[in-house]
Amino acid sequence: MRSxxxxxxxxxxxxxxxxxxxxxxxxxxxxxxxxxxxxxxxAKQEETVLSKDVSVRRIAPGVWLHITxxxxxxxxxxxxGLLVEDGDASILxxxxxxxxxxxxxxxxxxxxxxxxxxxxxxxxxxxxxTGGIPTLDAQGIPVHAREDTARRAxxxxxPVPQQLLTDAQDFGPLSVFFPGAGHTPDNLVVMHPxxxxxxxxxxxxxxxxxxxxxxxxxxxxxxxxxxxxxxxHFPNARIIVPGHEQPGGTELLDHxxxxxxxxxx
Length: 265
Hints:
The chain is an alpha/beta fold.
């Protein structure tokens, strides 16, 4: 996995000689670092490995990034999703590649985070988003998606979400929006307004991406207009979480736009 260095610089402070000597004498007196919001999105210090192919990382109060790694058939590709606290429960956004991935995430949310998953949503029909649905179904946890996503998942032979979302609605502490076709004809984006986190899924590319990735179901002609609608609908997004690799700031939107311009020529 590519891992850009997002470690924030320690802020400069005016100190007296005595304060300097005191800090030199004991590291416990050093003031804590205060990361910038966008860089906090990928800070490594809070990452927790749950299994050989599942990990979680806190990226804001009540918001956790989950990372699941595919098997050999998909080249071990890591995929992102969210786990968002909602009162004494939580909401899972995208389910991992496999039922086993979801099983690990659900157990951690219940037994360690003490916010059991009460509902889930998937952002498009590909297997890196829908693969864990059988586990949620088995535990009676409703999985939501657009009607188009359910139809395409069924046609693809992927697990099918059973509950429907509209194109723009609130979902607990989240706001869900369909900006139009892009990576797929059905891709949703999800905003957590309290933290300024926008989960773009595969609709948004990470900062190190050199291409638009899997183009099997992409609509490069519609994608730029969809990206513009996403920006207009969520103008306060500060931290952007792509479907793969590392989160960043709004430069990820610019980078995706640049890749689209390159692809159209």
